[in-house]
Amino acid sequence: MPPQSRLAKVLQWISRWLGYRPSPPPKRSNYIVWFWSSIGAFCDISLIQAVFGQAHYGASAVLMYGAIEAPLSQPRALFGGHFIGALIGICITKLFHLLPTDERFAQLEWLAGSISCAGTIVLMQITETMHPPGGATALLAAVNAEVRDMGCYYLPVVLLTSTLALVVALLVNNIQRRYPLFWFQPAVPAAVKPPPPTAQPQPQTQTEAKQDSQPSTVNGSLNKKVATAV
């Protein structure tokens, strides 16, 4: 086998685990979908808990294994939603920490969490990275004391957690299903070309109408002359 053919097979095998297929996969039965959804969610949450001791990616697991074809489940939404949520939550919380006393911050903690969640939703809409669990990521940065103490270190933790979740999803979901459907932008189907317009008869101008009437006038005068001669 030539080296080029071997390389093509290796690349094709690797691309399979990244969600690429030459043709859409067949529709699987509900039992297969349920089986791999449970296996994927179990492995995902177990791995994150083993690394960090706790996991708040349960809602992301529901999307990545229970609704793998939804735009909310794709890698761009996963990373973008959680990162934006963590960033907004940290920034809003640090602004509220400028209050004169901790007691006053505790009184307005609910407001910091509300603003963080609302701001995250808007920014996810603007960047087209809507991922509902990102709202919980922002809320934790404002109302959870352990997460608040992490400060800016919360950002790399969120990125690493998203990476672990994505790796498990790529391995499990591509055994008998397909994930992701796209990485950055969904594939746009080729636009159907409209049929060519049919030629419409153009109305005759006055000059054309006169030219058409001239032969009939000449024929009429000739007939009169023939009749007179007879």
Report on this model:
This protein is mainly α and 230 residues long. 68% of the residues lie in helices and 0% in strands. Helix 2 packs antiparallel against helix 9 and helix 4 packs antiparallel against helix 9. The longest helix is centred in the C-terminal third of the chain and has 24 residues. 27% of the residues are buried. The model has no long low-confidence stretch (mean pLDDT 84).
Mean pLDDT: 84
Order of helices and strands: HHHHHHHHHH
Structural class: mainly alpha
Helical proportion? 55-70%
Total helices: the number is: 10
Report on the biggest sheet.
Answer: none
What share of the residues does DSSP label as strand, in percent? under 5%
Low-confidence stretches: none
- Overall shape: it is globular
What distance separates the N and C termini? 99 Å
Can you count the beta strands?
0
Radius of gyration: 34 Å
Write a compact overview of the structure shown.
This protein is mostly helical and 230 residues long. The chain has ten helices and no strands. It has helices spanning 3-16, 30-52, 58-66, 75-96, 102-107, 109-127, 133-143, 145-150, 154-176, 206-229.
Helices and strands in order:
Layout: H1 3-16, H2 30-52, H3 58-66, H4 75-96, H5 102-107, H6 109-127, H7 133-143, H8 145-150, H9 154-176, H10 206-229
Helix pairs in contact: 2-3, 2-9, 4-6, 4-7, 4-9, 6-7
What characteristics describe this protein?
single chain; 230 residues; mainly alpha; 68% helix; globular
